[in-house]
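can u do me a favor
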C-alpha cells in the first residue's frame, strides 16, 4: 500500500474536487432555476478533472520515481487513481444527493418531464441515486482510463543520457 500512497491521496483529492464542483453547480443554480443549462456546464468539470490527473502523475513522477516515469508506469498509476475513485464514487454520490444538492433529482425529474424529454417513470428511474451510482461504475472508469492514457503520454520522462 505504501507504493499506492500517492494514488490514494490523489483519488481523495479528485473526489473532493468533484464535491466542490457539485456545490458550485448547486450554488450557481444549475441544480434548480438554471437546470436547463446543467447538461452544458457540468461538462466543464473535465478541466479540473484532467488537471487533477496531471498533478497526480507529476507528483508520482517527481516524488516517487525521482523525476523519471515511463508511459506504462504513469498509465498504471492513473489506473489505480481511477480504481480508487470508482470505489469511493457511491459514497460521493450519496453525499452529493443527500447533503450538497438534495433537491437535484426532484428538479431534474420535473424538468425532464415538463420538457417532454422523458416520461415520469423514465425520469424517476434515470434521476435517482441508484442510477447515478450505476452510471458512475460505468462512466468513471471510461473517463479515467481515457484521461490516464493521454496524461501519461504527456508526463512521461526518460532518464537523462550520461556520457
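np, heres the sequence
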Amino acid at each position: 500500500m505504501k507504493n499506492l500512497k500517492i494514488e490514494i491521496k490523489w483519488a481523495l483529492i479528485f473526489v473532493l474536487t468533484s464535491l466542490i464542483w457539485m456545490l458550485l453547480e448547486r450554488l450557481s443554480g444549475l441544480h434548480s432555476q438554471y437546470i436547463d443549462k446543467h447538461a452544458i456546464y457540468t461538462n466543464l468539470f473535465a478541466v479540473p478533472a484532467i488537471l487533477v490527473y496531471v498533478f497526480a502523475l507529476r507528483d508520482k513522477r517527481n516524488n516517487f520515481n525521482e523525476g523519471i516515469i515511463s508511459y506504462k508506469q504513469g498509465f498504471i498509476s492513473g489506473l489505480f487513481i481511477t480504481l480508487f475513485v470508482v470505489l469511493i464514487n457511491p459514497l460521493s454520490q450519496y453525499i452529493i444527493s443527500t447533503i450538497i444538492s438534495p433537491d437535484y433529482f426532484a428538479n431534474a425529474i420535473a424538468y425532464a418531464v415538463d420538457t417532454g424529454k422523458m416520461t415520469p417513470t423514465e425520469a424517476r428511474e434515470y434521476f435517482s441515486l441508484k442510477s447515478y451510482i450505476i452510471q458512475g461504475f460505468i462512466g468513471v472508469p471510461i473517463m479515467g482510463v481515457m484521461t490516464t492514457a493521454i496524461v501519461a503520454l504527456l508526463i512521461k520522462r526518460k532518464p537523462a543520457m550520461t556520457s
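The two ends are 37 Å apart (CA to CA). hope that helps!!
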